[in-house]
Give the backbone structure.
Amino acid sequence: MDINRRTVVRGAAAIATFGIAEGTASAAFAGTSSPNTSMSTSSAYSLEFDPTAWSYDATNDVYYQLGKVYVANPAATDYENLSIYVPGAYLTATANSDGTTHTATVNPKGTVGEYSGRTAPIVIPVNTPGYSAQSPATSYSYSSVSKYLEAGHIYVWPGLRGRNTSTSTRSDAAPWGVTDLKAAVRFLRYNRSVLPGSTDDIVLFGMSGGGAQDTVVGASGDSPLYEPYLRTIGAAMEDAKGRPLSDAVAGVMAWCPITSLHEANLSYEWNMGQFASTGTRASGTWTSAYSKDLAKAWPTYVNRLGLRDEHGRRLKLTESDSGTYLAGSYYDYLIEVITTSLNNFLSDTTFPYTVTTQGGPPGSGQTGTSTTYDTVDDYIAYLNTDSTWVTYDATTNTATVSGLGGFVTSQKTASKPVGAFDGYSRGQTENGVFAMGLDAPAHFAPLTRDVVKANEARYATYSDWNSDYGSAAYDSDFAKKDSVGKDMAWRTDAYNPLYFLSPAFGGYRRSQVARHWRIRTGIMQGDTGNTTEINLLLALQNYGIRDVDFATVWAQGHTQAERTGDSTTNFISWVESITKK
């Protein structure tokens, strides 16, 4: 069953997930459009990389180029350009007569550690919090890339448009951020003969909105949903010999990905909102009733996904004596994930243990109060302050979590209002992600619209209801088309990783899915439900992806969460474990 009630047939045959074969990856989509070249006759920029324009940092032995436009017909040259940073060993260069630039060719025998000029992985950061833009580099800085280059990686930094860069004449809302990222990947493959590194080993890494966008790219490799957008900006669709190019990637590192936005309003209320009773969830408000209805709608959605655990057990939610569908195999699996996270923490942590609360917004540097727990028993007592939901066995140093409500109340309270993603007044960040232009945020979630439609007569009996919140507003936004002629359903499908990973959607097995994944999330974050990353994990495993390194990290929130060590070092080590040497 297609959950969006749309059967999408776009001339594409099923594509295998486990390879990123150069020159063949897009062959299945050849019938979706005329076999034109990558650049039209009116192209403003060449896709050719200039090997005579390298700059050189002699102190650190790094070659680099800044500001290379990566599409032929850019919509925004101030964003659609990239920088590339290469360890000196991977190039053989001679100084040009201008005294500043160098002409370089790939040195396949040059090595850094076990990597060579032909086998080095290419790592691409996706730093787009809230699906905002990623500004390109405008000046050279070794310190920002040093750890990656010292590990033998090639670092490519693309500028990407985002929800905050639209103008009065141009919308940069979804799916343009991911489209730009795919175009940058295609540019690298178009120029693979003159660039060092392995384009079979391109790895993306990002957090929050960046983790979400690299997740979408990892799930949607070569999807036909993106072809009209890619062609609009003159992305490299074929190589110089007319062979199709791929935008699939080998690996994805996602910290706290805020994704699966199509259903996120529902899962947020089921996972967290049903245990809250203040703010928009206060009794007597229409939004309190709305919260309950969203929570009740989510089990139907998740049950239709047909998710299974690693043992093949079908995961479903069932009705419970108290709360909203707090029973069934899916519920048990969620409790197992929470329990594992807590036990990993107990294994990793030496007591006394000090907790310092955040004193300001993320990145502010402000700290709050600090509390030290001398023993594990003290810490467990703190967790059970409001209710007993954790039991502890000192002989094995393991804990057992008894229920979702106690965990959420203690560790993961809802920090967003009802309608956490597709806001009823179009006021949430994600309404801007799917905007129809400058200052034109839009509704995008059909599952949310269905809840509103089914219940708006009842909501209208509340004094705080406004008719502007009704289903007609959703229908109006859904009918609008973007500059490429695509409606909201097309755009939300393009930004939904499960559209490509789950048989419940029309895009299943119509893309090349990355073969390596590392997913980390701070279990305390109030930014999205536990279900977001869990469903991504399960969908990948059910799809047949064998390498999914997944962990929810106890006592951490919306950050580059790691059980031990630091995120950069751990990411570099993971890349080394999955790439060819």
User: Anything to note?
Assistant: The chain has a mean pLDDT of 92. Residues 545 and 558 are 26 Å apart (CA to CA). The chain has 16 helices and 17 strands. The longest helix spans residues 286-305.
